[in-house]
Every structure is written in structure tokens, then in C-alpha cells.
Design goal:
Elements lengths: L1 E5 L12 H13 L3 E5 L1 H4 L3 H6 L6 E5 L5 H14 L4 E5 L1 H5 L1 H7 L5 E3 L4 H8 L10 E5 L2 E4 L20 H4 L9 H4 L3 E4 L2 E3 L9 H4 L4 E3 L2 H15 L3 E4 L8 H14 L4 E6 L5 H9 L2 E9 L3 H6 L6 H13 L3 E8 L6 H8 L7 E6 L7 H8 L31 H7 L1
Parallel strand pairs: 1-2, 1-3, 3-4, 4-5, 8-11, 11-12, 12-13, 13-14, 14-15
Antiparallel strand pairs: 5-6, 6-7, 9-10
Helix pairs in contact: 11-12, 12-13
């Protein structure tokens, strides 16, 4: 049996590999006697034609689907099915989770959508469980689309880890480009130690994707993994790509204690939440955390409340001051054209830019499975059809060109920036 895991994205530079595919591939390889390969086309410098040539001899094609690359995913799946009609095509990822039923109704060449966490569902598919008995999938029974019950997420995240031998040949030169050059000179590696986020920001689908809970790898298991990567690949800098690295302060203090006991000479970067305590940040700084990033989105208390960020301008400034006093390199993430945002609100955001060593500013984009998207649907400003309209092939921005409730046009926001 042969499985191929692909992130079907071919257009631009990929800044970080799709680590989720590595977790899936590792789990399957550890439980089923099969051949497994992961392909990130941009990283391997493969065009679509070269990649399709690999499809002829596989049994299962597993694709990850993001909103921004959804049509690349669907087009690739269609071509793959033509080349190998007997291949089962399974699609997962946040966009497929949100629109599973509609995707299967529209695209007959996709066989199964695996929603949310895919390891157990995929394993049962490969072991030939009846599809009707596999939680967490949506599938086609004759002409009917069937959405099974959600899967209960595994509490013990130590069961899921990433065997970097699947992807390391393609990422050994990867660098975190938002950090000081002295850390870029070290051997860098992206890593994930948790899943989910307990917060419910109106613009984010993470709460829906992960059932509103946060789960973390145990400190013992995480240190075991880090030690292996240091010894195996000579890694000296880790960029944690967790939505929220600090989900449990007790676990964090234990992680720091163990890292100190192991005597590992590493530097690392995490993403935190505004309001993280000074005691936690100080301890992380003592054991090698050099960089912290956090989502600000807006400097306006009004907008922060509208998007359900559950932080205030005062808390933002306090967290910045704590990080500065501890000599962190800090990265801020901001959005423009948020709901009800005025020019005055945006100016309050701009005032914060100079507080960061690096800041990342993006236009606010609409994603399915978010509270704000559902609100727009209720108001009749959008519907699910838009995700299948190639006039909106990539990002769908919240701008006056598309939404009557938006305060800014794309052109206006470009001028402001």
C-alpha cells in the first residue's frame, strides 16, 4: 500500500513547511505497514506535471486544503483522479473541515473529507473500517453525502509527533526571517508542541477546528524530541508554530526546568498572548527564549471588543513593556480593515508599530467557520457559494468592493499602508 501526502500549492514561496502532514505521515507509518511519502512541491521544486507523474502508482492521495489555496487543491485532485481513477483521494485541513459537505457535493473526484484531527480517522480508513463507523469524516454513500459524528480529540498529545526524516531534506536550509541575523546563522527548525486555542476571536477558525480546547505535549516528551533534534540535526534555534505556546503555566515552568537540567544550548521563539505574566516570561527568557510574537490586531479598544479579542490597549502596552524590560526581540501581528474600524481606530494601531522590532500587517481576510463569517451570512452579505467562485480564487478581503458593511476599500487600505 502506498500513500502520498501533498500540500498542493505551486505558486509562491512557502515560508514554513506544512508540519501537519508530517504528523499524519509519522502516525500512519508507525501503525500500518505501508510506503509513505510527503511532498511540498515548492520545497522540492516540483511543478504540477512532475508531481502528477507520481500519482499513477499510489493507493491513497492525502491533500491538505487551505482557504487561500483551495482551487489549487481541487484542481490537483481532479487531475490526479483522471490519472489514477482507483486512487482514493482524502482531503483535510481547515478549509475542508469548514465546507466538507459542499466540497463533496461539488467535486465527485474527492472521496472523503477528514475533519479536524486526522490521525485516527485516516488510520481506520487504511485498516478498512466501514466508513459509517469512522468518526470525523464526511464521505459519499452512492449519491448521498454523509457527515459522520465529530471525532473525540485525543487528550494525550504525546501520541502524536513528527518524524523529521520525512521532510528534513527539503527544509534543512529553512530560516526564521523575522529574527536577528545572529540567530538566523544558527541551524533553524520549525516545531509544533500543541494543538488548539481556547479563545474565540471572531476572525479566527481555530476554536472550531480544535473544538475550543488547547492540548499540549508533555514537557518530558517535548524535551525528548528537542534533544533528539539537537543531536540528530545540530539544531540550535527552534521556531514554535503553536497558535498558543503557553496554554498551561505549570507545564511551562516544568518545561523550563527540564530544559535547564538537560543543559541544551538552544535558542527559541514562541507566540504568546497579551497578558502573559512576567514570571512566566522571565523564566522562559532564562532558558533561551529570545523572541516572542503576539497578535495585537488593533490598538483600538472598540475594535478589540468587536472582534472578541478579550484584551485591552492597556494590557497590550503592559505586555510590550514587560517584554522590553526582559530584553526580548518582539514581533507584533496586526490587521487592517477590521469590522467597524475607522481611520481613527487604525491610527491607534499605527501608534504601536514602533514598539516592536518586527511587525506584520495584513488586510483582514474572511475565512469560513469563523464567528464573523457567520455574522456576514446572517446579514446576507456572503454565502458559501463564494468559496467555489473562481473570481475569488485566493484571499477574500473584508473591503467595500465586496461588503457593504466594510469601512474601507482595498485601494484605501493600500494608500494608508
Amino acid at each position: 500500500m502506498k500513500l502520498l501526502f501533498v500540500n498542493p500549492y505551486f505558486k509562491n514561496k512557502v515560508y514554513a513547511p506544512t508540519l501537519g502532514l508530517g504528523f499524519l505521515a509519522t502516525y500512519i507509518k508507525n501503525h500500518v505497514d505501508c510506503e509513505v511519502e510527503i511532498i511540498e512541491p515548492v520545497k522540492k521544486r516540483l511543478n504540477k506535471h512532475c508531481l502528477l507523474a507520481k500519482i499513477k502508482n499510489i493507493d491513497y492521495l492525502c491533500l491538505t486544503c487551505y482557504t487561500e489555496s483551495r482551487f489549487q487543491c481541487f484542481d490537483f485532485a481532479e487531475q490526479a483522479k483522471k490519472i489514477n481513477p482507483n486512487c482514493k483521494i482524502i482531503v483535510g485541513g481547515p478549509h475542508a473541515t469548514a465546507l466538507d459537505v459542499e466540497i463533496l457535493k461539488r467535486y465527485s473526484f474527492i472521496d472523503i473529507v477528514a475533519r479536524r484531527e486526522g490521525e485516527e480517522a485516516l488510520l481506520k480508513i487504511l485498516k478498512n473500517y466501514p466508513l459509517s463507523q469512522i468518526n470525523g469524516i464526511t464521505w459519499r454513500k452512492d449519491s448521498e453525502v454523509v457527515q459522520n459524528h465529530d471525532q473525540v480529540l485525543e487528550k494525550n498529545l504525546d501520541l502524536f509527533y513528527l518524524d523529521y526524516s520525512f521532510i528534513y531534506p527539503e527544509i534543512y536550509k529553512w530560516k526564521d526571517n523575522e529574527i536577528p541575523y545572529k540567530f538566523q546563522r544558527l541551524k533553524n527548525l520549525p516545531i509544533i508542541a500543541s494543538r488548539g486555542c481556547p479563545f474565540r476571536c471572531a476572525f479566527c477558525a481555530a476554536s472550531q477546528q480544535w473544538s475550543g480546547i488547547w492540548r499540549g505535549m508533555s514537557p518530558d516528551k517535548l524535551l525528548e524530541e528537542i534533544k533528539f533534534l539537537v543531536n540528530q540535526y545540530g539544531i540550535r534555534y527552534f521556531r514554535f508554530y503553536d497558535a498558543l505556546f503557553i496554554g498551561d503555566e505549570i507545564q511551562i515552568f516544568k518545561f523550563c526546568d527540564l530544559l535547564e537540567q538537560y543543559g541544551l544550548d538552544i535558542k527559541f521563539r514562541i507566540d504568546i498572548r497579551v497578558g502573559t505574566s512576567r514570571a512566566v516570561l522571565k523564566r522562559l527568557r532564562e532558558v533561551g527564549c529570545e523572541v516572542v510574537g503576539f497578535g495585537i490586531e488593533s490598538g483600538s479598544d472598540k475594535v478589540l471588543q468587536i472582534i472578541n479579542k478579550r484584551i485591552t490597549r492597556k494590557q497590550i502596552e503592559e505586555t510590550i513593556n514587560i517584554c522590553r524590560s526582559l530584553n526580548f526581540w518582539i514581533v507584533g501581528f496586526f490587521m487592517i480593515s477590521l469590522p467597524e474600524e475607522t481611520s481613527e481606530d487604525f491610527n491607534e494601531t499605527v501608534e504601536l508599530f514602533d514598539s516592536f522590532d518586527v511587525f506584520n500587517l495584513q488586510f483582514f481576510k474572511i475565512h469560513p467557520n469563523t464567528a464573523f463569517y457567520e455574522e456576514l451570512k446572517k446579514r446576507g452579505e456572503i454565502n458559501d457559494e463564494i468559496w467555489f467562485d473562481k473570481n475569488y480564487e485566493e484571499e477574500i478581503y473584508y473591503s467595500r468592493e465586496l461588503f457593504k458593511s466594510a469601512k474601507f476599500s482595498r485601494r484605501a487600505t493600500e494608500i494608508m499602508i
